[in-house]
Each structure stands twice: as C-alpha cells, then as structure tokens.
Amino acid sequence: MIYVIQLCFSEADRAKLSNIFLRLDSPLILKGDRPHLTLLVFRSMKEEPLKPILEHFAQGLRAFLINIESVGCFSPPGSVVFLAPVVTIHLLTLHQRLFSLLMESGIEPSPLYSPDRWVPHVGITMESEEGRWHTLHGIFDQPVFGDHLLSYIELIRVQPAKLLHRITLEA
To answer: What gap in Å lies between CA 107 and CA 125, rounded to an integer?
Structure first.
C-alpha cells in the first residue's frame, strides 16, 4: 500500500485549481485525485499510529497561503507535470518538522520526500515526454497562478484512494 500526507486547499481554491484537471483531461481525475501539495509518501505503514502524530503536528498550525508561480515536470518514469509554489522558510520548516516527527516514531517516508530531496509541488497531470510541451502550453492560459490557501492536512491511502484522516487547520 502507498500512503500520502498532503496539504489541501480551501474549498474555493480547490474549485479553481480543479478546473485545470478537467482542462488537461488529467488521468489523476480517474484516480479520484484533486489538487494538493504532497508532503510525504510512504510505501507501507500502519495507519493508526499516524493519526495521533498528525494531530500533534497540526496543533497550533494555521491555514496559510502559498504562492504558485511556476510550472515544472519530473523526469520519467511518470512524467508528472506540476504547479510549483514559491519555496518559503515556513513551508520547508513545516515539512522538516513533520518528517522529523515521523522518523522519531519509527515511520520512514520515501527518500524522495526527505528534506534534502523534497520538491514542493501540486501535481496536475502525468504526461508522455512528447505530450509535455502541449500540456505546459495549456496551463499558462489558466487562472492557477498567485496565492492559494492551504486549509487541511490529509492522510490518504492510494489505490484504492481512501481518505483516512483529515485535520482542518485553524483559520
């Protein structure tokens, strides 16, 4: 099983960003995905110990804005095309704190999500190398750039997709 801890957008921003999934006919829609910023990924783990860790992590954490300013893509395999937020000290510190809490609890995330390798991103589609340029061109005429509010932390089981835990961040 694969599990993901993600930061999710406010309902208003999620609706705005979801339009790009539809516009690009993203295969992520078929997986039940929606716009989010992935914090950590795990290959396998026990679900129950994670809930109290997430609750502890979220204490005092407030909803916050990220500024999406660019587009990028990861190299194959997968070729994920993503929106990239401006990387801030707040975002990096948040990620480092969660990573450390999990490691102290004996839960080891994927090395791709370790603090020295993590690329903050909002995946929007998966594309072949040939189709990437067309996809990238289609993004720039969409209203996806600028500030967006992150309001939730979620624990998701992937394939089959299932929301396991959701924490609403303080306003």
So the answer is: 29
Query: Token pair of 155, please?
Result: 């624990």
- Give the domain ranges of the chain: 2-168
> What integer pLDDT is reported at residue 79 of this predicted model?
76
Domain spanning 2-168: CATH 3.90.550.10: no
Share of the chain above pLDDT 90, in %: 53
On the question of pLDDT at 167 being above 70, the answer is yes
Question: H/E/C letters for each residue in 90-125?
Answer: HHHHHHHHHHHHHHHCCCCCCHHHCCCCCCCCEEEE
Nearest to 151 by CA among 66, 31, 29: 66
3-state secondary structure at position 143: coil
Give the tens place of pLDDT for each residue, 84-141: 999 999 999 999 999 999 999 888 899 999 999 999 999 887 766 566 666 666 677 7
How far is 151 from 148, CA to CA, in rounded Å?
10
CA–CA separation, 31 vs 68, rounded Å? 24
What pTM, to 2 d.p., does this model score?
0.89
Which of 67, 88, 4, 86 lies closest to 39, judged by CA?
Answer: 4
- The H or E element containing residue 158 is strand 146-158
Please tell me the distance from the alpha carbon of residue 20 to that of residue 13, in angstroms, as a whole number: 12
